[in-house]
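DATA SHEET
Item: assembly model
Revision: 1
Owner: S.N.
Input lines:
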Amino acid sequence: MEKRTEPAASPLLLAMRGIVKTFGRSVAVDGIDLDVPERAFLTLLGPSGCGKTTVLRMIAGFETPNAGEMRLDNTPLADVPPERRPVNTVFQSYALFPHLTVNDNVAFSLKLRGGVADIAVRVRRALDAVHMADFGQRYPHQLSGGQQQRVAVARSIIAEPRLLLLDEPLSALDRKMRGHLQIELKALQRRLGIAFVYVTHDQEEAFALSDIVVVMNKGRIAQKADPQTIYNRPADSFVADFIGNSTLVEGRVLERRGDAATIETALGAITAPAAEGLAAGDAAMLVIRPELLSTRGEGEATFTGSVSNCVFQGERSMIQAEVAGVPLRFAAETPYAVGTPVALWLDASRSFITRIAA
Amino acid sequence: MQCFTLNRRQMLGGLAAGAGLSLLGPMGRASAAVSEIVWATWDSNGHPEYVAAFEKVTGTKVKLSFLSSEDAQFAALKTGSASDWDIVNPSLNGSWRYIKAKVLKPLDLSKIPNLAHMYDVFKTTDKVKGEDGATYAIPYLWGLNPIVYRSDIHTEEPTYSTLFDPKFKGQLAMRDYALESIAIAALHIGIPRERAFLLTSDELVEVKKALIAQKPLLRTYWQTIGDLTNLFATGEVTAAFSWRVPYDALKDKMKVAMAKPKAGIMGWCDCFGIPANLSDEKVEIAYKFADYLLGADYASTIADIGNYATTSSIIRDKLSHEKQEAIFVDDLSVMQNFMWPVAPDNYSEWLKVWNEVKAA
Amino acid sequence: MMVRQRHLALPVAAAIVAGCLAPLAVLVAFSFYEVEDFDLVPAFSFRAWGELAVSSTDWFLIGKAVLSGLSATVFTAILGYPVALALTRLATSGKGLAIIVLLTPLYTGEIVRIYAWRIVLGGEGLVNTLLQGLGVIDEPLKFLLFSPFTIGLVLTYNNLPYMVLAIWVSAEMVDRRLIEAARDLGARPVDAFFRVIFPLTTPGLAAGSLTVFALAAGEMLTPSLLGGTSGSTAMALVDNLFGTAFDWPLASALALALLATLFLVASAMAGLLLRFKGARAVMGRV
Amino acid sequence: MRRASLCVLIVAAAFLYLPLVVLTAFSFNDSALMAFPLSGFTFEWYRELAQNDNFLKGFVTSFLISQPVGILAMLFGLMASLALTAPGFRWRGLFAVLLLIPFLVPKSVLSIAQAMIMSRIGFERGATALILAQSLVALPFATALISAVMVRLDPRLIEAARDLGASPWQAFLRVLLPQIRPALSGAYSVGVILSLADLTIAMFLAGRTQPLSLMVASEFRRELRPDLNAMQVVVLVLTAVLVGLSEAYRRRRLHKLAANA
């Protein structure tokens, strides 16, 4: 993958500082800082209930933060109602107006402004952009899920917002349709040059689309970085666990040397790159991603154990092997029978020692 | 789901209630002959206090069913929708309708000993007799309908024409009743009292005009006497064609007085009657009640509380002169001056006029 | 076995036919009868219908019934929308309480409530005393009581809960995100109301309107006790013809004419409201 | 936004409760006349009310009548709703129109017509007639309440139950009924409320039965008495207490359910 520009290099579009949002006694967003650069594709990633949708709704203006400040183009957003924010949203369920045709749905915001002369042309253009130009006369209930999704996108880009918010826009679609639309969305974002803030709980989707991924946990930002960094150097055990299919092994740092450290675990002492600030004596977590384990290697095998589970996935199989009581997952080209003894080689230089999440 | 228990309990309660009702029904009916009679009467003739003595002596409960108008009473009897009434209350002057329509039972006068005390004017009236010579109704209570007015506002005693005087715009009220209202308007436009209830179609047209012209002057039409009392008490109305009830209710609280217009005082006299289809087991107790109405207990309570006189002289001499004066029995010749409201032959025309006035 | 479910319509239909259609059919029959000497005589006479046809009073009162039904509908709708929408914003626990608060006034007896209004609106009543005390007016406002204003006010009061309930139920079914979507796309709250909420709640509005129209057009106690000299109603006239005048044929004819008129107006009203695109969208999905 | 909603609700409640506040005030007013100004505080009217057997009887009568009305409205509403949502019901439209009729005909016209037909066929007016007539008027409301919930139910749930071996009756009892129970409860309440508040039907059909509303109207005909205000206040408070208790009970059950789950 290409090396991405550092976020800070683009001019800043949206800045959030110290944002807190509570609902009754529960804290949904617990003091986050977030910057969205111009033209960025930023994804808020996290399990349900982590506060990502609340952040989106605060940006859109549907919720008011209890504390903190938001600025868009350096203008405070505090007293700006949703309709006056240059921000549009693509809702999870699309929220198409059931009583309006596709054309009327898309034209909604232009008609409200009044005095827009070329509404028909612009509606056509917006629908063209999502390949829905032939469906203008239909009502939402006459469209498939994917089609409704495209209309929702067309409706929210027609007014040329500064920032487009997308709340799990593809979650209701089947896998294939999701793949198509991911590519289209990404292309559309590049073409339009507007910043997208995208909410999802699907890490693959986040990685496929984003320039910046923000992983959230319990109302806080766990990590904010480009996809590769998130994947290779998860900031803590929460991120590591949430991303991919890794095995996390708890241990204690024996020794720190530059970027790397040696950690003592149930699997033995392993030396690997380590998170900044981890020092000898700290409790830490070794992250072993499936692709770092191999059944063929040079020299002595790192671990030996026996297969405890095997899931056939078509082009490969996902195997789980028990090693010193730790279940390790790895991929193999052929299925294994349960109970088969296996020897595994670990590419420790690509694994990572990270902090234990609070 | 959360409503389940509540719901079940409600349902059980309801079932029990239903069972209770079905028990009540037959029990109530079987024992009604002895335990209860229903008296359809005016709100001013029948208070629980007035019948307490009767209930005590006979052990029969008197249930009061208040009338809204004489016409409604007649219609209810005629259509059989009054099946719950055991004793009814035709007016002296309206009795002929009931008799002609055969909705009353001929009466056995020997079963009402107190008839002996009745004033002659009532004893001798043939208005309650049918063509067969039988008596169908017994007059028992009478009085007059005055104009009740606020004496602090009306310095002169009002006449019927006061009720048409623009000077008192927004302070006047008429009863929502065709018979009396039209007759009053007729007197106001100069039709002599003898013919006030015998208007021709042309005269009705004139009366209608007067009543429509009166409308803007009126605060409202009153529906029930409680309604009118409330209107006086709240200061909405200062003069109205009335019954005497508001005067008695309010005389200690505000300056109110009664006027008896010289153009013609509306008198009224109510009669006792038994519906033609009343079951035999109830007839006996009904006669007892008729005797009670002409007896001393009813006369003295209603003279005392309601300020009305019965048709019986039984207690007259025991009353103070003030009381005699208050209930107009000090000089019985007053009755000679009464106008007795009576439904005319072209009554439906009257009703039509009245409805047109109200809708105008 | 499932086939039997629709047969449950039979007892219900039978009950309505016996309890409702049969009496109305009797009205039709009676409207052709004659009255002789206080007796209803079977006949085939057009006397009542003829009299009704030329009676300007009767038609005036029928028109008045329609008008008061319509005005109560309009007023309750205008007042009902903000209340219903405010109710949708309550937390779930608050909604249970709100429905009780809304329905409790309906428990009170009609008559007692009517006299309470007299105390509120009378010449020496609450409102006038208050306004005079504040120096807003010198003379009591007489129009507050015993006027068409009073009828309008109290009919609105009596029927507001029904309208609120109907709109509320409908508004709860509108996906909140649609309103957010509208706001997001630049709609001010008032735009969001007219372009999204209103079209999508027209079925509720239609239900509420039918309820209020039928109830208000048929009221007779409130107008007669609070309307002063303008309190006459077609219903009171039917009652009068039935009870006082003993003219059952005319009473029946008038009642039927009133009914037919109310039916016509109600169906026109429902038809009009349900022609909105929103109603079709909502109904179409169900 | 929230504040605006709250303001609207407060103003609406003030409007709806204005007459009730006034009658409460006069129920404690030391004067037999319902007119301003208030003259003093007294419990006299409540005392009189407590001594008035008639009112108690009227209240019991009204209550006893309202219960079968609630139940009939609920049962017939349920039957009507089941029919309305039945698959392949050809007369659905016609049936729906039929259901609307008792509702669109003004109560007084209907009651007059019913009284006429009853006097012709010799059906005695009274509690039974009143219960039947009130149930008929409540039927459209009850049906609307129940079928509104029913049309939104997933028909697959019934199919799932049948698939798992339930007979239609069992499917109804175990799957449908639990889901529409709140609606049934609502239909029952509507029937009870309509019955308790009804005066018009009672005027024409009550016969010898004297429900509270009729008694109040009759008493008011003679005299406007403050103990009637007191009675209204008592009825209101009783209702509020009952509703409050059942709500508290419901919540406690919910808590219990949550705790057990």
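QC remark: Residues 4-35 of chain B form the longest helix (32 residues).
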